[in-house]
Request: fold
Amino acid sequence: MEELKELKERMEAQRPADWDSLPDLNLYMDQVIGYMPRQLIQYGEEERLTSAMVNNYIKDGLLPRAEGKRYGKVHLAYLTAICALKQVLSVRDAGRLAAHHADEGPREMYERFCGELDRALKETAGRLETDGDREDLPRLALTLALRSYADKLACERVIDLIRETETEGKPKKSKKEK
Reply:
């Protein structure tokens, strides 16, 4: 099937720009919005990043503030990770995962993200059978959906464990502080 073959090819080949290929010049918001669709595989307009979304990510502390209304590599790296992860996680949990790797530094966090994304895309592309017919699509969709379900269950539990370790490290408030 031609459509699945095209998807498989994109999943095998299309990747976000590596750190050194991200723009060296800081970008204005409209340039960021125009750049981001190149970073991830997309099929619909509803997935597009908006300036309101970027501003909300900044307000929520998921993304550093702009440097004089301009956004650099660090912003593009975080936005790429957030835009991919929010497809399956809450935006807050996506930011939590990015923040846990922030100690490594933005470049290292982004390279880890890209490496994991590469492995995931290759694995899923390997599951796509492109020589089947349309009658095989429901079975393939069910297989992919159940794989997503299982991965999401595991991911949610791991995020719960991360939350638990975050709260264990904080001193408990006394009744007077509450």
The two ends are 60 Å apart (CA to CA). Helices lie at 2-13, 29-35, 51-59, 73-85, 91-100, 106-127, 137-168. Residues 37 and 107 are 20 Å apart (CA to CA). The chain has seven helices and no strands.
